[in-house]
Design goal:
There is one protein chain. The protein is α/β, with parallel strands linked by helices and about 450 residues long. It has a seven-stranded mixed beta sheet, sandwiched between helices. Strands 1-2-3-13 form a four-stranded mixed beta sheet. A four-stranded antiparallel beta sheet has the order 11-12-15-14, with helices on one face. A hairpin with a 3-residue loop joins strand 14 and strand 15. Helix 4 runs parallel beside helix 9, helix 10 packs parallel to helix 12 and helix 11 packs across helix 12. The protein folds into two domains: about 160 residues, Aspartate Aminotransferase, domain 1; about 270 residues, 3-Layer(aba) Sandwich (Aspartate Aminotransferase, domain 2). Keywords: Aminotransferase, Pyridoxal phosphate, Transferase.
């Protein structure tokens, strides 16, 4: 369980978090104390709120028996927690073949690669596996260097692509680019991201809403301008839909796809948190009108139980046979592959992407009705079951204190989510959630918002 995010991660100890932690039960406090004695501290992970003792379906339960619908899940819980089909696949594979050393392959790894390429957007027919999303981004960067002969990259400020030096270099979050961590990779150019509600170029219309015709040209042309001025850029690395969440304006990605083609720049899409059905399509880029040259998946690919990521690429990018661009100990681990294969089969066979689209549209309608009568909400946006609620103060500025207070008011009622970029309530329920459970969560969220509104009015 984690608190609000100032970027993509979780802040340390704000007033509301401190109060929540102080109110934790004795079992949770005891475990947190033990935790603090043995783990190195780091931002986003410490201090912990409490300890989880059980996770099943859409629910997590802390050490003192308090239960929460998990609308956070670190984006791994598309199938909820402990999905029986994933557990069965893992246990079966453990009995049949628990490990495959490098230089050997195995049937589960091949089967997962074949299934991914069969489902992927057209042309993405080659795969490498990695133990996590950050490592998969590193593979994509290395592959782009070899394929293009260029080391420079273009990416967006505020984006998160992983915590490794390469991933943090193309990422745009200040927390992961702190100068105390030392120099990052050279040649990484960044431009402002698409963010229509808070357009970095300041293009609202007369009504205060974004003027998409103008704004789209501004944010897209900033990237094309960089490509024009720096023709040695080998890769544009980006999220097709930002996990904040923020959607690109219409026509954004087709324009940048064309710019990449003109300059021989590879388009690398990072779908680590947003892929595999979360947005209402199996792949988030299916909404974009553009097919990447390299696609990176992760998080939910391991079924919410095991760490697994994948890099999918065009066949003509298979040009690094004499180099070690991944070479991970568990790159063809049969247990990880079995979990990934079972995850894909559940999502496809149970129609969970379509279900996410339907439930997400319903939730967006409900939330926009709620927002219409609550001044704390500036915008509701999202795709599928990845939804953001932008919290604002009376002057339209980010309402960070209200967002944090809403998080803990919701936790008290039994709903856990994260706050992104300080003021965006980010709701990411499992794809298996029922309509009744979704309604209950929205009721708890509404009550939390009203509690915070009343408290602020009386303060």
């Amino acid at each position: 369980m984690t608190g609000p995010d100032r970027s993509e991660g979780d802040v340390n100890l704000g007033p509301a978090r401190a109060a929540w932690r102080h109110a934790a039960g004795p079992a949770g406090q005891a475990l947190v104390t033990r935790d603090e004695r043995v783990f190195l501290r780091q931002s986003l992970s410490t201090p912990c709120l409490s300890a989880v003792r059980r996770a099943e379906g859409i629910w997590i339960e802390d050490a003192d028996g308090r239960r929460y619908m998990d609308f956070h899940g670190n984006s791994v819980h598309h199938l909820g927690h402990g999905h029986p089909k994933i557990k069965e696949a893992i246990l079966r594979q453990m009995a049949e073949l628990p490990f495959a050393p490098r230089r050997f392959t195995c049937e589960p790894a091949i089967a997962l690669a074949e299934r991914l390429t069969a489902l992927a957007p057209p042309g993405l027919t080659r795969v490498l596996f990695a133990p996590g999303g950050s490592e998969a981004i590193e593979i994509a960067l290395k592959l782009a260097r070899v394929a293009t002969g260029r080391h420079r990259t273009l990416s967006f400020w505020d984006a998160f692509h992983g915590a490794g030096f390469g991933a943090a270099s193309v990422g745009g979050e200040a927390l992961f680019r702190d100068t105390r961590l030392g120099p990052l990779l050279p040649g990484t150019t960044h431009v402002p991201p698409f963010a229509c509600f808070r357009c970095p170029y300041g293009f609202p219309s007369a009504s205060g809403a974004p003027d998409l015709a103008t704004c789209r040209m501004a944010c897209a042309r900033a990237a094309t301008f960089a490509l024009d001025r720096e023709p040695d850029i080998g890769a544009l690395v980006a999220e097709p839909m930002r996990a904040v969440p923020t959607l690109p304006p219409p026509g954004f990605w087709p324009e940048l796809r064309g710019a990449c083609d003109r300059h021989g720049t590879l388009l690398v899409f990072d779908e680590i948190p947003t892929g595999l059905g979360k947005t209402g399509r199996l792949f988030a880029c299916e909404h974009s009108g553009a097919v990447p040259d390299i696609l990176v998946l992760g998080k939910a690919l391991g079924g919410g139980m095991l760490p697994l990521a994948a890099v999918l690429a065009r066949a003509d990018l298979d040009v690094a046979d004499d180099l070690a661009i991944g070479h991970y100990t568990h790159e063809k681990n049969p247990i990880l592959a079995a979990a990934g294969l079972a995850t894909l089969e559940v999502i496809v066979q149970e129609g969970l992407a379509q279900r996410a689209a339907e439930l997400g549209a319903y939730a967006l309608d409900r939330l926009r009705e709620i927002a219409a009568t609550r001044k704390l909400i500036g915008e509701v946006r999202g795709l599928g079951l990845l939804i953001g609620i932008e919290m604002v103060d009376a002057d339209g500025r980010p309402a960070t204190a209200a967002a944090e207070a809403t998080l803990y008011a919701a936790l008290r009622r039994g709903l856990s989510f994260k706050v992104t970029q300080g003021s965006v309530l980010t709701l990411s329920p499992p794809l298996i959630i029922s309509r009744d459970e979704l309604d209950q969560a929205l009721e708890w969220l509404t009550a939390a918002l009203d509690e915070v509104t009343t408290a602020m009015a009386s303060s």
